[in-house]
Amino acid sequence: MVSHEIHLKISQEGFDLDDLLPIVGEFGRYQKQLLWLVCLPACLPCGFCAFNQLFMADTPPHWCKVPGLEDMDVARRRRLAIPASQDDNETYSQCMRYDVDWTTMTTTTTTENYSVVTTYSSVPNASWFIVPCDHGWEYETSEITSSIVIDILINSYMLSFYILPFYIRYLAMLQFDLVCDRAIYPTIGLVALNTGGPIGVYLFGTLNDRIGRRISFFTCLATLIVGGFLTSISNNFWTWAFTRFIVGLTIPAIYQIPFIISLELVGPNYRSFVTVMTCTFYTMGLCMLAGVTYLIRDWRTLAITTSAPFLIYFFYWWFLPESPRWLLAKGRLSEANDILETLARVNGKELPVAFTQKLRQRMTMSRSTSEEERLRNGPGVLSLFKTPNMRLKTCLITLNWFANNMVYVGLSYYGPALGNEEHLSFLFSSLAEIPSYLACWIVMDRWGRRWPLCLCMVMAGASCIATVLLSPDAVMETLILFLISKSAISASFLIIYPFAGELYPTQLRGVAIGFSAYISGLGLIIIPFVTYLGRENLVLPLVILGAIAVIGGLSGLRLPETLHHRLPQTVEEGELFGKDWTCADFIRCVPTKYAPSSIAASYEDLSARETVEMHEVPIASSIMEEQQRLNAASVRRLVRQSSVMDTQRDSDGSMKMTYWF
Q1: Rounded Cα–Cα distance for residues 259 and 223 (Å)
Q2: Record's superkingdom (predicted)?
């Protein structure tokens, strides 16, 4: 009966793929093959290229190069020419040396067989002047054999070496030496990477909406690979930073495009599962990166290894379909029909005749002038700030999202600095995310969004701040607290997406989420400087990130709960939603359940549109009961992003990449 009702809707009303997918298969063989063989593997490059830079810029122990002492062994040369720390005689300055003319500090004697022996003073004199390193540095390369901090390009990459201009070839003969007064440079490289993100999301988002998801994905992939190759042949820091900006243009767009294709082709009941799987594969990419960076210590080889293998993804050209939603929105109805017929055939289903007839009718239709005028005069970003309650909610959502973004990425950047082995620390940091995804899947549908979001962020912040109570040598304890905070912030990062989408009214949802997400993304430009503070004090960045997390988490308590509530559709309803917020609402931990008849089509439960229609389409009670029974038996719907993705559409029904950062 449910299938008959959906057939009736398609024949009598305007169609939507969410009405069609239950007939041709919400998650059949076609979607499974596409998900497991194409879309999920396509999520791996983002993690590789977002964090491989952390290992390219490793800084080994270093000290000043001292002319005149080249023949002396390293330990003795450092003990004689480099000032020792006042607290530890075994720790030497990395940026200062004694200002001594070593030719005047030697004693030359002649042995009986007429050989000359030169003897140096064995103990430094406290009266010697100390000066900054002015002849370069020496590096301890037993563990870190290559990085952009210490590397030199002599005659490698000969082709590029000879075709480059003379001044570039001159720079190619110099070490980077990004230490001491240039130690901030690797951090600037991270800023360049993160600056590319918001620009790339807009550029590739525009391409995605204009020329389609398929071509946009391969364009993004080509940009990433070219950026990785150019990184490997960079001759100086500023060239390297520019190539990282190019790579940054593709992050996170390279992840979002296959993610959107997956969500657009599966039914509402399975979007939560797809979301969890894409997050898991992204995390698997981070775990694989830990292994790759452990095996490959040369930064140029690492840049190639973490980008060139993704050339194999161009074979997806023959397998990755265009989004039928996008094709329908652009009027390419014949192509959309072909894809949907293939989907139905592979799933062992049949495309409804009514749907095909609707397609033929739509081929002759065009958007009316009145609709164009309505879209042009629709509400925009300023509508978020015109009324007090919407203004407050917008500020709180944006603040919370900003804190989530900063803390999550900041902890990810800081992971390798903790523990005794950076690759192992990064691996544990990545693995800590997976339990949080599963926990969110369960908790959000039971306890709502507000309190889980707050508790996760406060737990993450408290774990970070607690590191200040540990002694400086408590490395393992610091690592454990770090892993707790990373897992908690990962959980909250999943919650903020649907929570924000449910709080914003439908009329403003797309532009509002785009605004909050974009503002929060600007925090990624700041976060490298926060982690840079850890060079002087290991726990200082953790304390700063912890404070940000606590502030963001507590701010979320002022937001109204959305679980079991009718969600706002218009700007006016958005202003009224949560306006009568009371102290009782503040302390209520478990959301109040309302009678089903009073609940409008839920933003997080997309399939409820067939049960309780927003457009008030009458449905027989028996059909409603059957649909509710099917929904109850379906895979648990994790609300994260499934609902957000469903509402990030233009008026013609196409999902908008430009709404996402």
Answers
A1: 18
A2: Eukaryota
Closest to 103 (Cα-Cα) out of 62, 70, 138: 70
Q: Give alpha helix (H) positions in 448-558.
A: 450-466, 475-503, 509-521, 523-532, 540-555
Task: Provide the 8-state DSSP code for 154.
Answer: S
Range list of H helices, 115-184 = 158-163, 166-172
Distance CA 390, CA 461 (A): 27
Distance separating alpha carbons of residues 499 and 501, to the nearest angstrom: 5
Strands (E), 325-405: none
Burial 19-31 (b: 16+ CB within 10 A, else e): bbbbbbbbbbebb
**In whole angstroms, what is the distance from residue 454 CA to residue 9 CA?**
41
First vs last Cα of the chain: how many Å apart?
A: 41
- E strand or H helix at 192: helix 185-211
pLDDT tens per residue across span 399-446: 999 999 899 999 998 888 777 788 898 999 899 998 888 888 778 777
Secondary structure letter of residue 419 according to DSSP: S
Angle between helices 523-532 and 509-521 (to 10 degrees): 20
* Length of the chain counted residue by residue: 661
CB environment 124-159: b (16+ within 10 A), e (fewer): eeeeeeeeebeeebbbeeeebebbbbbbebeeeeee
- What is the rounded CA–CA span in Å between residue 646 and residue 638? 14
Looking up tokens 């079991």 gives 564
Look up residue 13 and give its two tokens: 């009303």
Task: Domain ranges for the chain, please list them.
Answer: 13-60+149-160+170-367, 64-140, 381-581
What the block records as the tokens of 272 is 């939560």
Detail the DSSP E strand segments found in 546-590. Answer: none
Helix locations, 233-352, DSSP H: 237-248, 253-265, 271-295, 299-305, 324-329, 333-346
Element housing 139 (H / E): strand 137-139
Tens of pLDDT, residue by residue over 263-272, are 778 877 787 7
Flag whether the pTM goes above 0.85.
Answer: no
Average pLDDT of the segment spanning 580-588 = 70
Query: What is residue 192's predicted lDDT score, i.e. its pLDDT?
Result: 93
Return the CATH number of the domain spanning residue range 381-581: 1.20.1250.20
Q: What would the CATH number be for the domain defined by 13-60+149-160+170-367?
A: 1.20.1250.20
257 class by beta-carbon count within 10 Å (0-12 exposed, 13-18 middle, 19+ buried)? buried
Q: Are 450 and 505 in contact (CB under 8 A)?
A: no
